[in-house]
Amino acid sequence: MKKIFFISVLLSSGSWFFSSCHCKKKTTTDTVTSIEQKRDFEKEGYTKATVIYYEVSGCEYILKLEDEKKLEPTNLSLGFKKDLLSVWIKYIPKKNAVSTCMAGQIVELTDIQGR
Length: 115
What we know:
Blueprint: H1 2-38, E1 47-53, E2 61-65, E3 70-73, E4 85-93, E5 105-114
Parallel strand pairs: 3-5
Antiparallel strand pairs: 1-2, 1-4, 2-3, 4-5
């Protein structure tokens, strides 16, 4: 009798443990995914761009916009220095800035997000 009681308690608590852990992980992932999907970067004023490794002396990475315009960011962080990386950017043009690269307009990024 004691064995049957012990086995039934063990089985019921084990099934509760596995089912509760699975649901919790799935809910957390679903919540994060749905929040990311609802964000509209274009409405927030972001511009689509692609990070390009620019193989010219004095240059490293530039940003290419959808209209083929090229930007030279002054503050592109290391995490985004990947060739052909698609990103969303917000930027401020730098007036009277000088560059040895001369590949595009010099800008300061105010925000960058992967897409």
